[in-house]
Amino acid sequence: MGKGPNRSPAHSFLHACHIRIDTAVSQQTVFHWIYSPMTDHRLSATDISVEFSGLRALDHVTLDIGKSEIVGLIGPNGSGKTTLINVITGQVHPVSGSVSVNGNEITRMLPRKIALKGITRSFQIVRLFDNLTVVKNVETTALAKGASRKAATALGLDLLAEFGLSDFADQLAGTLSYGDKRKVEIVRALAGEPHFLLLDEPAAGLNEAESETLLSILSELPHRKNLGMLIIDHDMTLIMRLCHRLHVLSSGKTIGQGDVDDVRNLPEVIDAYLGTGESEGVENA
Ligand SMILES: Nc1ncnc2c1ncn2[C@@H]1O[C@H](COP(=O)(O)OP(=O)(O)OP(=O)(O)O)[C@@H](O)[C@H]1O
Ligand SMILES: [Mg+2]
Hints:
Blueprint (H helix, E strand, L loop, with lengths): L8 H15 L1 H10 L7 E11 L2 E12 L3 E5 L6 H8 L7 E6 L2 E2 L5 H6 L2 E3 L12 H11 L4 H14 L15 H13 L5 E5 L7 H18 L2 E5 L3 H7 L2 E6 L2 E7 H4 L3 H8 L11
Helix pairs in contact: 1-9, 5-6, 5-7
């Protein structure tokens, strides 16, 4: 978190909020008009609670995403963000609550079945097959969905081109730079042709130029691919510029959600980043 010199995570968050307010409010409003969510096509996680050996990692969290919408899931380290994606994609079973897509319940389904329902993800720690070529890594997702080898290769090559990765198609994934591996991780999720794409820290470890490229690619995806997106990241500048809505977790609980500009002013959110009791005077931070 925090790419600027001498900038703490808290100040990165607050600084990014102000960049958004100063430069991007009208863009966001226009985006909402163009890409307003369809009410009949939603991914919903309702009243989700998760426990790990007595630790409550999520506590009655409810979040939903519409088609064509980009929702940012933010919060301090250990607040439950990855766990929520794990619940949605079937890697973790909640002790209570339900997940549904377009009104059909998918709670506790196997991850590969959930992927077939059109929900795919990238992982916080990149999970490529280092000894397979880049295009074969991407193909695996399309093949798992039932595509022919030929169609899977064609889709893989198209997606790699969209991400500027064509030159690496026949290279072993293990030889890529960290930034390019992260991009392939996203491409691989897209090869499942998802209705909802869940990205866990896609910009982690990217330099500023790479983050900027990623931002422009991601911002177009919902419209171009007709999908909804949930994105976790600690790069608040990216989150503020990309997302239509935010959902904020702290210690497993929702402490704020809604429009970016509303959420940034919530004392609970500011305290979660600055530490309890420091929300006064935040307007000037
Ligand atoms: N498989 C697990 N077993 C036990 N505890 C877990 C497991 N997965 C997560 N936790 C715990 O649950 C809490 C939430 O973890 P989670 O990974 O969801 O946080 P996060 O918000 O994604 O954090 P970060 O920003 O550091 O990635 C943490 O206390 C974490 O240690
Ligand atoms: Mg995480």
